[in-house]
Specification:
heterodimer; A: about 450 residues; alpha/beta; D-Maltodextrin-Binding Protein, domain 2; 2 domains; 7-stranded mixed sheet; 3-stranded mixed sheet; 18 helices; B: about 300 residues; mainly alpha; MetI-like fold; 3 domains; 14 helices; lipoprotein (chain A); SBP (chain A)
Chain lengths: ~450, ~300
């Protein structure tokens, strides 16, 4: 009997070795196709994007200009967020990233430092004039290279319940000083109502507020990164919100929760510091209060200033894995500068375009449905967008954002010191940069 | 409450029925502590399911404003919206999930049965080593393998294909482990020996004698693997870029994460999640009768 057993084992071992060999052989032929001189003839590109309705916009290209140039683009719809950056980097590691990717501005340095997106300055450099300087600068990272074409932006604004402001006798704050006064006045008149909340879940919101105050979190000098998350401007912003939370003038619960939706919908929170895309969020979060909100510029740090930060926004980048960079760059430029494309993007996808001329185009003559009471919504929005302060992102925004959530989450819950939370954020970000092998000057 | 009260008169709640030292109880007593614990456990498990079912009936404006467990009026609208989303891509996802889960679980179960039986019945050099490696595999969460598996399949040019999701899920260390334990317990060595005496080939003994004895165990492996694949997120997320090949888990995420300027489609996601649970429930109800676990049922957790 042992003989039979032995034979059985040997046979199965032989089979599995054969399978393994087959797999290696397969792998060997898989990695050998490398045709880089495909400049003429039809080209087909893949595009990872999360924008809803993007396939319809891309259809315009495939049937129009793309057909002429023999460049066909296929949309592969993805989920947005940090996970997509990881997915792109993983695919890039295997040399399999798509030709085009949608990337949020703060993710670009990460993609650039991993050599995942290509410099397309020679192909799209002319598009610079179509965008505000502060927007364009986010895609160059302050270098001569251009790593993406801006698609949409999220200039920050102040949203408030017009009817309830009247009811409580409040005026719309134009400075942060007045904002704090308004919060206190409201607390006095209606102790159960909050002006707004400080959300420790939304790192992007805090980053935008710091940006408005003049913070530049990541900068480079020579080959070294400089991290200034705890600079004076950011400390000012952290202290301002920390004090409001501490004295109980505003709420300390996170945004984008069912409880927050309810608070907005029932008038328990009557204002929201947000960005141009707020109407979409309000439509689902507070459906019963449609037509009762109004938009105003963000409060300023001093009466004479007129700046805003940005929260959100994304760009179209060409990957280094693409074998047709020129064709991909051509499409990226068309998508974000062509009038028809931008109108379609606004209509099909509801984005707010980065291109300055598109911000006042036909698609934006009527206000969003939710804000039908404010006919000049988009004229005002375009004026505000022009005042966007430049932003400075680094290669590990995700780490800074995660520590923000932890440190500020704790501080907001305990109503403790926000400035020391900011220091934690600074220290962790610097430590991570060093660990990743970047040179950091202190 | 009367029956609960009866149990209090017994010796102590929680003792095994039939071991009472005093006069034998007239009625079957209910052990209070285990019953309450199980009831709490059931509530804990069923509440979220109830939430999904009820939330699926709410329209967008009702979702966050009405009482949590008050049914809404929007189910038909939610359903038709989900149907219409990107020309019914949801059903494509559902089909993909079914394909991955059915085929993957079947293949995985057969691989497990073969290898489990071999490990339990044959003595060969390296057997213990293989088994130890397998145990290590059981302890390793499959999540951390997803990225290496992606890089491996990328070398073979198989990413973004149905195979890329199926292949890595065919070998389940846990399934092999279960099959080995079950084969050792359910297939007596004497029976195998008797088969050999009668001149049956090893293959014949396995298919005709051992396999029928292993069926209940294999049903368990199938179910576990089916549920694991159906619920798997990271592997298909990393492997696939074409949303026509997404399973439900990855597909629904694209409805939630549409970028900052587009609100998440909560009602569609909840309705989609609700519909995605139905096949699992149906599967369990149908397969339950093949599933007499006895010795495994206590030791096994998903």
């Amino acid at each position: 009997m042992p003989n039979t057993k032995r034979r059985f084992f040997v046979r199965s071992a032989a089979v599995s070795v054969a399978v393994a060999l087959g797999a290696t052989a397969l792998a060997a032929c898989g990695s050998s196709d490398d045709d880089s001189e495909a400049e003429s003839g039809p080209v087909s590109l893949t595009y990872w994007t999360w924008t809803p309705g993007m396939d319809k916009v891309v259809d315009l290209w495939n049937k129009g200009q793309g057909k002429k140039d023999q460049i066909t683009v296929t949309v592969k719809k993805q989920a947005s967020g940090d996970t997509l950056v990881t997915k792109i980097l993983t695919a890039h590691k295997a040399g399999k990233a798509p030709d085009l990717v949608q990337a949020e501005y703060q993710a670009l340095p990460t993609l650039v430092s991993n050599d995942a997106v290509a410099d397309i300055a020679s192909e799209v450099g002319d598009a610079k004039s179509k965008f505000a300087d502060g927007v364009w600068q986010q895609t160059t990272l302050g270098t001569d290279a251009v790593y993406a074409v801006p698609q949409d932006i999220g200039p920050m604004m102040f949203y408030y319940r017009e009817d309830l402001f009247k009811k409580y006798g409040l005026t719309v704050p134009t400075t942060w000083e007045q904002f704090a006064e308004t919060a206190r006045a409201l607390k006095k008149k209606s102790p159960d109502t909050d002006l707004t909340t400080f959300s420790a879940n939304d790192s992007g919101l805090f980053a935008g507020l710091a940006q408005q105050a003049g913070a530049k979190w990541w900068t480079t000098s020579g080959e070294k990164w400089q991290v200034a998350i705890d600079d004076a401007a950011s400390q000012k912003v952290a202290k301002f919100w920390g004090d409001l939370v501490k004295e109980g003038a505003i709420d300390n619960q996170p945004m984008y929760t069912p409880a927050w939706n309810k608070a907005l919908n029932t008038g328990k929170q009557i204002a929201w510091v947000s960005a141009v895309w707020a109407p979409g969020t309000l439509t689902t979060a507070a459906p019963d209060t449609k037509g009762k909100w109004a938009m105003a510029p963000l409060p300023q740090w001093s009466q004479s200033e007129n700046v805003t930060g940005s929260w959100g926004g994304s760009s179209t980048a060409v990957t280094t894995d693409s074998e047709h960079k020129a064709a991909a760059a051509k499409f990226a430029a068309w998508l974000n500068t062509d009038g028809d494309a931008l109108t379609a993007l606004a209509k099909e996808s509801g984005i707010y375009p980065a291109s300055t001329s598109a911000q006042l185009s036909g698609a934006f003559t009527t206000p969003p449905d939710y804000f039908s009471n404010q006919p000049d919504f988009y004229t005002k929005a375009a004026e505000i967008a022009e005042t966007t302060a430049p932003s400075a992102w680094g290669p590990n925004v995700n780490v800074a954002y995660t520590t923000f959530k932890d440190a500020f989450g704790k501080a907001a819950k305990n109503k403790s010191d926000f400035v020391s939370a900011l220091t934690t954020m600074q220290d962790d970000t610097v430590a991570d940069l060093k660990k990743q092998g970047f040179e950091v000057s202190e | 409450m009367s029956s609960l009260a009866v149990s209090k008169t017994g010796p102590a709640a929680g003792t095994t029925p039939g071991t009472a030292q005093s006069s034998p109880p007239l009625r079957r007593r209910i052990a209070l502590v285990p019953t309450v614990t199980l009831l709490l456990g059931a509530v804990y498990c069923l509440l979220p399911v109830a939430w999904v079912v009820i939330a699926a009936t709410k329209s967008g404006s009702e979702l966050f404003s009405t009482f949590t467990f008050l049914p809404g009026t929007g189910f038909a609208d939610n359903f038709s919206d989900l149907n219409a989303y990107r020309d019914g891509v949801y059903w494509q996802w559902m089909g993909n999930s079914a394909l991955y889960a059915v085929l993957g679980a079947l293949l995985s179960t057969s691989v497990s049965a073969f290898s489990g039986y071999a490990l339990a019945m044959y003595r060969f050099p390296g057997r213990q080593a293989i088994f130890n490696v397998l145990l290590a595999g059981v302890l390793m969460p499959p999540v951390i393998l997803a990225i290496p598996q992606y890089l491996l399949l990328a070398k073979a040019d198989l990413t973004d294909s149905y195979l890329s999701v199926l292949l890595p899920q065919i070998l389940s260390p846990y399934g092999v482990y279960l099959a080995r334990i079950y084969a050792a317990a359910a297939v007596p060595a004497d029976v195998v020996e008797a088969g050999r005496m009668d001149g049956a080939s090893e293959w014949r003994i396995f298919t005709r004698v051992a396999l029928p004895m292993m069926v209940p165990g294999m049903v368990t492996v199938f179910l576990f693997q089916f549920v694991a694949i159906w619920n798997n997120f990271l592997l298909p997320y990393i492997m696939l870029s074409d949303d026509e090949r997404f399973p439900i888990t990855v597909g629904l995420q694209t409805l939630l994460e549409q970028g900052a300027n587009t609100p998440a489609l909560y009602t569609l996601v909840i309705t989609g999640a609700f519909l995605a649970v139905i096949p699992l429930v149906a599967l369990f109800l149908v397969i339950q009768r093949f599933w007499s676990l006895d010795l495994l049922s206590g030791a096994v957790k998903s």
